[in-house]
Amino acid sequence: MNSGVVFTRIMRTRVARWPRMPALYGAGTGFWCGIVATIASATADGTNALVPSVLTVAALSSLTTVLGAFATALQTWLLYASFVIGHTGQVALTDASVNAALVLGGTAVGATVVGAGIRWIQMPVVVARTTVVRVRLG
């Protein structure tokens, strides 16, 4: 009888999807991106002033969690309402700022749904791990 040792390999896989940015990182990134968007909005004319803020909220909301998306939208709206509409650093609660809040909130919801959909249909990355099993014959 043969009493040799046989080695076999077992291949195990697990699915690793593209992770979302945690809420605190999303909110922090949203804050400094909101500052940049506010500066860009302040230099734009009146019809395009909200576009940099909308693009900021859309980009970050698709990358972060729901809480991070709403924190980004809130911070960006506060900066926009304070420095672009209000001009003095105080939040101006006018019709324009309420409309901006609705647009930014809707953008956060829409981009979060799109980001979740992309993650859902995303081709999973297969991470292979090899396990060596030692089998003794005999």
Protein structure class: alpha+beta
Biggest pleated-sheet summary: 2 strands, antiparallel
Measured as a percent range, the helix fraction is: 55-70%
Give the integer mean of the pLDDT values.
Answer: 82
Short summary of the structure?
With 138 residues, the chain is an alpha+beta fold. The protein is 59% helix and 17% strand. The mean pLDDT is 82.
Molecular structure report:
With 138 residues, the protein is an alpha+beta fold. Helix content is 59%, strand content 17%. It has helices spanning 23-43, 51-63, 66-85, 95-121; strands spanning 5-16, 125-136. It has a two-stranded antiparallel ribbon. Helix 1 packs parallel to helix 3 (66-85) and helix 2 (51-63) packs parallel to helix 4 (95-121). The chain starts with a strand and ends with a strand.
Helix and strand layout, with pairings?
Blueprint: E1 5-16, H1 23-43, H2 51-63, H3 66-85, H4 95-121, E2 125-136
